Amino acid sequence: MLGNVAGARQIFERWMGWMPDQQGWLSYIKFELRYNEIERARGIFERFVQCHPKVSAWIRYAKFEMKNGEVARARNVYERAVEKMADDEEAEQLFVAFAEFEERCKESERARCIYKFALDHIPKGRAEDLYRKFVAFEKQYGDKEGIEDAIVGKRRFQYEDEVRKNPLNYDSWFDYIRLEESVGNKERIREVYERAIANVPPAEEKRYWQRYIYLWINYALYEELDAEDIERTRDVYGECLNLIPHKKFSFAKIWLLAAQFEIRQLNLKSARQILGNAIGKAPKDKIFKKYIEIELQLGNIDRCRKLYEKYLEWSPENCYAWSKYAELERSLSETERARSIFELAIAQPALDMPELLWKAYIDFEISEGEYERTRQLYERLLDRTKHLKVWISYAKFEAAAMEEIVEGADSLEEQKKKCIQNARRVFEKAINYFRTSAPELKEERAMLLEEWLNMESSFGELGDVGLVQPKLPKKLKKRRPIASEDGLAGLEEYIEYIFPEETQAPNLKILEAAYRWKKQKLSTED
């Protein structure tokens, strides 16, 4: 109001000596601009950004230069700001403002470089607005490749945010890795893999490691198949196997993949060493099976035998291993060795699937034409179990044995009759067992008779269904209550089997009662 510009300036200068807040500096700048003192205002801006080195102060300075048409000066201000404030928490605002400045100057390539530089340097958690602006920029100025890069960048930001919030979310890591693999930048792919596998599950429990271990598997497969880096692949498998706590749990899959990788490199010694370590540290069925398969393909029979011995030493109840070992010896025409293995197997105190082992032994003897040995096996099996299926299998064997009889015997017809008689003998023995020793197993007895009847029918003229039909039971539909925790839950239908001897028993009791009554009457008359 007094027009004393010099006096006002002097007051402002004394005020600035106290280093006031931003508003004080901006008031001084406005004062100089009112009198068109551009150079003085520029000088104050320089002092302003030194006193308040904040992103907002630098942006105001650059906008001041741009407003005055000083494009080069404005760019210089932004560049200086980036040098000083690139690591600041508010750096995102600076880069966005710088890129938009270049965009207004029609310098789209400069703007793109600024966006990319910023995206590489600013932590993903603070770059949300930057990504959004970059995608919008590429849609407006970029080509197809640029737009795709921007979209990839946006997805990359999303995945970074997810893995930052929960580093143990392995599905997010898998998605992130797939994204990087689609782009094809080896260094980025490896970086993400390394970051992912660094997130080891916190507890040494297998359920927590199930998904995690596939990060290692995918990493190794990427290095071998895509990057074609054999040494890195070997290192990945080695580090993974060293990391797994094998004393608590292990993964057969990773051992086998590592061994198969070495085989593909024609390095059999390393493959054997890996599989040997697997058997020593964490023996599993899959590892034994694959190791034996590999040695068998290579024709190393003695190694296969040693492996089967270790397999059975580790798991003596394993019927699959016993059967396969015997099968190997049989394929080598080592009949006695195969038989000895079967004998050792059935002598084990505990077996996981004994029925399969006995069947394999019986089939072996049949294939060797050893019918008498087969009969002895069936008898030994029946000493252990009287299961319905064993009886039926035994009878079918006796009936089918005639198919193996050499022609030229005294009478083929007589031989057939003998086989049929042997089958009938088995059925008779079975029926007698179920009638006397297991009368409660009526359904099994009925099924056995049905099987016998069908077999007699299949014999044609030599068969005699009349032997079986009188023994067949009557089937009666009945109902019985269904018990539950709350009491009765309704009725259910079932089949009651009434065998011939059960219908005769009541009549005998009536005759006995009548005889006793008559005898008593005669004694009283006397």
TrEMBL record:
Family: Belongs to the crooked-neck family.
Compartments (UniProt record): Nucleus speckle
Classification via SMART domains: HAT
Domain Pre-mRNA-splicing factor Syf1/CRNKL1-like C-terminal HAT-repeats as annotated: residue spans: 71-155, 227-377
Protein name as annotated: Pre-mRNA-splicing factor Syf1/CRNKL1-like C-terminal HAT-repeats domain-containing protein
Signal peptide: none
Keyword terms: mRNA processing, mRNA splicing, Nucleus, Repeat, Spliceosome
InterPro entries: HAT, HAT_Syf1_CNRKL1_C, Syf1-like, TPR-like_helical_dom_sf
An annotated GO cellular component: U2-type catalytic step 2 spliceosome
Role according to the record: Involved in pre-mRNA splicing and cell cycle progression. Required for the spliceosome assembly and initiation of the DNA replication.
GO terms classed as biological process: mRNA splicing, via spliceosome; spliceosomal complex assembly
Highest taxon in the source lineage: Eukaryota
Keyword Nucleus in record: yes
